[in-house]
Each structure stands twice: as C-alpha cells, then as structure tokens.
Amino acid sequence: MTDRNAVIQPDRGQRANALYLVDKAGLDGLLGGLGEGQRAALAAQKFEAGAGEVAIVPDGNGWFAIGGVESRASLRTWCLARLAETLPGGTYRVLAHGGQPPVPRLAAALIGWVAAHYRFDRYRSDAANAEPRVLVTAEAGAIEPALAEAAGIALVRDLVNTPAEDMGPAQLEAEVRAVARKFGAELHVVTGDTLERDYPMVHAVGRAASRHHAPRLIECEWGDPRHPRLAIVGKGVCFDSGGLDLKPSAGMALMKKDMGGAAHALALALLVMERALPVRLHLLIPAVENAVAGNAMRPGDVLRSRAGLSVEITNTDAEGRLVLGDALRRACEMAPDLVIDFATLTGAARVALGPDLPALFARSDDIANALLAAGVACDDPVWRLPLHDGYRDWLKSDIADMVNSHANGFAGASMGALFLDRFVDEKVDWVHFDTFAWRPVARPGRPKGGEALGLRATWAMIRARYGGV
Ligand code: BES
Ligand code: ZN
Ligand code: ZN
Predict the structure, then answer these.
(1) What percentage of the chain exceeds 90 in pLDDT?
(2) Cα(273)–Cα(108) distance, integer angstroms
C-alpha cells in the first residue's frame, strides 16, 4: 500500500523529473521555448493544455512532464489530482520553463495530489502496488496541513467504504479508540442496560441487531478544559435496513454508508487533535445497526428520550434523528460553545441538492455564512437550507410530544433538522449537515465510493473561529 504521507516531500534538492504546468493561455509561450522534436512529441500526444492533460517530453537523455491546469496563476484543490493519477510513477518538481512566469504556488493543490493516491483495496487479493507519484515542494509549511486534511478525507472514505459486517458499532468504536489513544483523549462508551436508561432512543434503534453489533454511545473528550467546548456529533448507523418499515432493495443497497456522519465527525475530531486546535473537544457517536428482529421498535411505539420528550414512531426508517436526538442532548448538557453534527439523515437532502452538496442548517447566520464562504474558498462547497419555524407543527403527535416522521412528504431535510432542533438547547449555537457521504461518479482525486463532503469547509470555519493553529 502506498504511504500517502510520503507523496509530498519538502524540496531538499533530491532527484526529480521536471514538471511544467501550463494553461491554455500559456501554451504558446511554452512551445516557443521547446526544440522542434519536443514540439513534435507534444503534437503526437495531442497535448492542448486542457486541465488534467499530461504529456511526456524527451530532453537530452531523459524526459520531463508537462501538465495542463485550468489556471496556472491560481492552482485550486483538485487541479493537480488528475496529473497525480496519470503521470508515470516517480518523483516530480514543478519548475518554470524559460519564458514562463515564476513557479506557481502549489499550497492549495497539495491536498488533491495526496487524495488522488487513495485506493480502497482492503478486499482485493491483487492489491496493486502502483509506484506513487511524489511531488517535492519548496512550500514546506503547507505540507503538514495538507497531509492532515488528506488523511481526514481518506479516513472518511475508508470507514464508509467498509461493509457493515466489518464496520459495525463495535468496529466503529475501535476506530474511535485508535484515534483517541493516539492523542491521549479520554474515551467513554455506554452499551447494554445503561444505554436503555441513559440513551433510550439509541437503545431502541439498535437493540434488534445481533449482539456482535450491539448499540453504543461513544464519547471522546480531548484538550484543555479551559478552552471553549466544541461538540462534534455524527450519525453512526452502521447499516440502515429501515427496520420494520423495511427499505426496498434499491434503497437499502448503499446503506453501509449510513455511518458517514460518524466518519465525518471522527475525521474532523482527528484534524482538531492533530493540529491541536485550542478547544475542549467533545466527540459523540451513537453507533447502531437499524435491524429487523422480534425485538425491533415498531411503528406506533412511543419512545422515551434523554431529553425527556416522548417520541411516537411513525416510521422506523427515520432512525438517524432518534439516535442523534439523545447524543445532541448529551452534548448540550456540557454547555458547549458550538455543536456541529454530520448525518446521512434524509433522502430528501440528496433529492434537493444532489450528491455533491451537503445541506447545511445553522441557527446562526454568521456561522452559516462563514461556512458557505469557507466552502467556496477551499473547493468544498455546502448549501444552506432553512430551519423554517412554520413547519414545526408538522411534528405534532396525537399521543406523544412529537412524531419522528411527519405525514406530508414536504421539506424532508428541513423536517429532519427541525426534529433534531428540539433536542438542542436553545442557548447553544448549532450546525447540522445532512450529507450524502458518497460519490456516485468518479472525478479527479475523488474515486467513486465513500466521500468527505463539507469536512474541509467546516475545518476552515472552526480554525478561523478558534484560531491558534
Ligand atoms: N439513512 C436514511 C437517509 C438516506 C437515504 C440518506 C438515502 C442517503 C440516501 C434515513 O435513515 C432515512 O431512511 N430517512 C428517511 C426519512 C423518512 C422516513 C422520514 C428518508 O429519507 O426517506
Ligand atoms: Zn432510515
Ligand atoms: Zn438512516
């Protein structure tokens, strides 16, 4: 397996092939500085400096590479990803060819270079040991942050891609435990009977799973208690069959990814600890399997919740909001400065925004705007949807304090968010992401499969908010 941390290295003058970046506007200038044979080689490879195009050019006894980019003057996150996928294995140094302006700033594009080396080969007997493309860069200070973010992306992808049998609540706990141990964070896990008492909705959703996949509430705390408290919560439904309101096969097919919110939460927590953000971190992951068995919760059942609210189950497939409700309540008991949750909560969010854009819900306009701006700045866009007061009544129940699924099919993503809202202390700033956590079609640096969406935007927002990195 490629050591992804080794694919960008500080420039110590090591041997490397030259890599010239060029955009369409700069192509003629570059061509002018080449020999006739070199120009012929480029023509033969039909190189037109389109973004992601690669050409290999003979040079004396050796060769150099040319890579097309959208704009050489401002390299973005993914603009080197295609090159990192298609260049021959080896080591590269970006240089400026005679006549070109100085070497472009690579900092923003390093994440894409590393992320392009991601492979999910856990189950492949022929796991190819492709030779990595190593990039050396003089921007040494940009390497560590880029590697950290790329590691966060890879963690989300790995956790989501792993099938439910191998990424159940117990394995998810083991993943959190491994991260906690690395940073000396405290881990606290509630399972079994205590769960029934303290986290009744987590228990109700998860109790029908086999004992190997028993439900649990995973909590991890890290950092100086005098720092502002940041709670990060993630929906950890390791498989969502729908429960007794069983999903049809097409709807169930991808439901190993229903712990994608937990994967995002853990990856964000990893970044916080790795980069030592000055916060008191509180990570909470309710980890369950929404399974079918004789002891499964039923439509019509009324659940108690940690917050004291009673919830009538009108659809056992609206389970994410139940486990999150208890976890969010727990987070708020510690008087956090900010609560952020990630969840693959509704199909409606995907219908509204498609797989690329996570739906963002926020109580504070300032935080929402900061997230939107950060998303644009770091090529990790998010889109805001409303917590509309006028729809709150739709959660009324005939026999309990609320229902878990409203009867009219309107505004599904907002309704999921409004349900959660009831469990978040009014005084607390709260952000909720309804995310798809999956890329259905590959793009450069972003293979089909589990995907981190909104992770880097959120990381940028909290870095700006808490500073000190
Ligand atoms: N995990 C699903 C939501 C989901 C479905 C996310 C498809 C991504 C893709 C969630 O638990 C669920 O089933 N939600 C229901 C809610 C409904 C019953 C109110 C949904 O979206 O249909
Ligand atoms: Zn569901
Ligand atoms: Zn679900």
Answers:
(1) 96
(2) 22
